[in-house]
Amino acid sequence: MVELHIHPDAEELLVITRGRGTIVIDGPANDVQAEDVIHVPTAAEHELRNTGDELLGVLFINVPTRDGLKKLTAVQEATDT
């Protein structure tokens, strides 16, 4: 579903809304299923795969950190003026 990647300036929450899958976060794979909430730390290498017979529903929430937060703040300040 989502190939191995990182977010250097954001942490991420994944909320599994339906189905089953496997998540890899900086190491071994772990099974996930509906109603699981997974935290992916900033710059952690991660990947999510659908391993079930149905659609894997996921809500992705990215939260800027470090330089990402500085960039977001700068954009907000520029649009507020």
Short structural description:
The chain is of the alpha+beta class and 81 residues long. It has one helix spanning 66-80, and strands spanning 2-5, 10-18, 20-25, 29-33, 37-40, 46-50, 57-64.
Topology diagram in text:
Layout (H helix, E strand, L loop, with lengths): L1 E4 L4 E9 L1 E6 L3 E5 L3 E4 L5 E5 L6 E8 L1 H15 L1
Antiparallel strand pairs: 1-6, 2-5, 2-7, 3-4, 3-6
> Roughly how much helix do the residues carry, as a percent range?
10-25%
Largest sheet: 4 strands, antiparallel
Number of helices: 1
Low-confidence stretches: none
Strand count: 7
Distance between the termini: 40 Å
Q: Strand-and-helix sequence, N→C?
A: EEEEEEEH
Helix/strand/pairing category: alpha+beta
Strand content: over 45%
Radius of gyration: 15 Å
Oligomer: single chain
Mean pLDDT: 91
Describe this structure in words.
It is a single chain. This protein is an alpha+beta fold and 81 residues long. Helix content is 19%, strand content 51%. Strand 3 and strand 4 (29-33) form a beta hairpin.
